[in-house]
Specification:
The chain is α/β, with parallel strands linked by helices. 30% of the residues lie in helices and 24% in strands. The protein has ten helices and 15 strands. Strands 3, 4, 5, 6, 7, 14 and 15 form a seven-stranded mixed β-sheet that branches. It is globular.
Amino acid sequence: MPVILHQSLKDHARRSGSAAGSRRRRRIIMKAAVIASFGEPSVLQIAQAPRPVPRPGQVLARVHAAGVNPAEILARAGAFRLPAPAIIGFEFAGVVEAVGPGVDKSLIGDRVAGWPDSATQGSYAEYTVSSNYATIPDRVSFEQAAATVIGADNAARALGLLSLRPGETLVVTGASGALGSAAVQFAQQRGVTVIGVADTSNADFVKSLGAIPVAHGPGLVDRIRAAAPGGVDAALDTAGKGLLPALIEVLGSPNRVVTLADRDAARHGVEFSPGGSGNRDSRPVQEALDLIAAGAWTARIGRSFPLAEAADAHRLVATGHTHGKVIILP
């Protein structure tokens, strides 16, 4: 984004932030995709909702883009037993419009990307509140930033659990997805050779990230071994499609296998590392955003939907064939 546009957003937000005192005296309404009861995508209904007020340590962000994730599909269907009414959406990119007590007012107008602080006051809305975020560089779009938050955080945590060293070889399943592509790129940055397992239709994209593409399906173990004649040192599963036995066979044990997506991990002796409010880290998100700005990281966008079509965005993600991150634009 050109600096001049960034500055205009910042100036507008500062003017909006000057009304912080008045927000306590009147109820401010925003538009959001509100879930009154959990179920099929059609439960995502566009409605008016109270605009959140930033508490101590929080910023109020005008949401410009929200990533759509498989976890949100589960949340919408009722898997997490969230209270209703709820506004879901677990990652966002936007502009700080007001700050809560204890937060530097100079942040007003900054472009940020991060996590909403509440699972029911999320990013499928015009505004959200957050205390955990990174700064978006000028040359990074809101869509790119929103597509990066959860992927970068989870991938960095998983790679840390694998204790990878430069010169080692890593297998990443789901290498064309948001989590997998982030893992591929972080591993590449750290001098690790990556074999990326993905659908054949995504082979060119996986190769463009610097990985050796390998098609999933029957014969996967043999194809991985052919791609890595010197052996494989570790494996990261981001697909969650029953691939753990194949990865264990390639490595000879489950000791250096981590999954971000397969909840049957314990049955295979594999470590499962789900993301959550207790282990979010904005530092790898900042690193990834800075790499995007430097032209050294790809945030692949599949399709963007207006807020009014949030249900259609969920239907697309549920197919598993998005060819990039799905984004909602409130």
